[in-house]
């Protein structure tokens, strides 16, 4: 009986500690969102630069340097909340296939919406950067750095750990809405389009239970957008 009571007390204390951890991460979540945008500062030309006058080393340091620091920081928070380790060596057809389907469907829906609403899809700043000396950094950030950081934050920390006790459809929906609002900055057609990307990544993670899947889906989505930009 004494052992049983001790076990219950230990479980209660463990739950309290986890609740405190989650509450703390919720409080700093807006800061985390801002921090993971730092690598994107290196993917575009700065105000004092032209396509042929670029400080490549500075852009590389901003994108890659900040990514390495933030990736370690984000993974530490993810693990602190109880997240499982990411097995980078295991790439099943389920993970790859789900990522491809999520990326293609989300971008097809967004493309369809842009046609129906006659919303411009051109991103002049990104297009200029792609045609400049920092094009390789822009590609690296779009396809790898941003997807990795954002999916650790949104799917790993938010969907899996903070909203993990919610029903799946609630966790997926809340994660997708927050993703869209943060990227869309306002309530409009652009935010609605981004909602489908958020849903695609959240569903991909829920279906595979592997963070690599939404990372890959996110990177492939950005690849599709980049190809359309350059087309």
Automatic annotation (TrEMBL):
Keywords: Hydrolase, Membrane, Metalloprotease, Protease, Transmembrane, Transmembrane helix. Pfam families: Rce1-like. The chain crosses the membrane at residues 23-46, 58-81, 93-116, 128-149, 170-203. The keyword Plastid does not apply. Residues 137-224 form the CAAX prenyl protease 2/Lysostaphin resistance protein A-like domain. The keyword Hydrolase applies. It comes from the Bacteria. Belongs to the UPF0177 family. This is CPBP family intramembrane metalloprotease. It comes from Fructilactobacillus hinvesii.
């Amino acid at each position: 009986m004494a052992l049983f009571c001790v076990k219950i007390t230990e479980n209660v204390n463990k739950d309290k500690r986890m609740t405190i951890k989650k509450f703390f991460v919720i409080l700093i979540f807006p800061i985390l969102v801002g921090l993971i945008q730092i690598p994107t500062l290196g993917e575009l030309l700065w105000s004092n630069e032209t396509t042929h006058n670029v400080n490549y080393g500075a852009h590389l340091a901003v994108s890659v340097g900040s990514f390495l620091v933030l990736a370690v920081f984000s993974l530490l928070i993810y693990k602190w909340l109880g997240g499982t380790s990411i097995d980078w060596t295991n790439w099943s057809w389920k993970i790859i296939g789900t990522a491809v389907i999520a990326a293609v469907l989300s971008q097809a829906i967004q493309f369809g919406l842009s046609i129906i609403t006659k919303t411009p899809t051109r991103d002049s700043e990104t297009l200029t950067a792609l045609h400049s000396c920092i094009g390789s950094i822009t590609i690296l950030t779009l396809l790898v750095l941003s997807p990795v950081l954002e999916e650790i934050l949104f799917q790993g920390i938010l969907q899996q750990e903070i909203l993990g006790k919610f029903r799946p459809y609630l966790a997926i929906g809340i994660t997708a809405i927050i993703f869209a609002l943060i990227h869309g900055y306002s309530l409009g057609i652009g935010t609605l389009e981004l909602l489908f990307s958020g849903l695609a990544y959240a569903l991909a993670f829920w279906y595979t239970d592997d963070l690599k899947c939404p990372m890959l889906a996110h990177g492939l989505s950005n690849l599709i957008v980049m190809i359309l930009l350059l087309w």
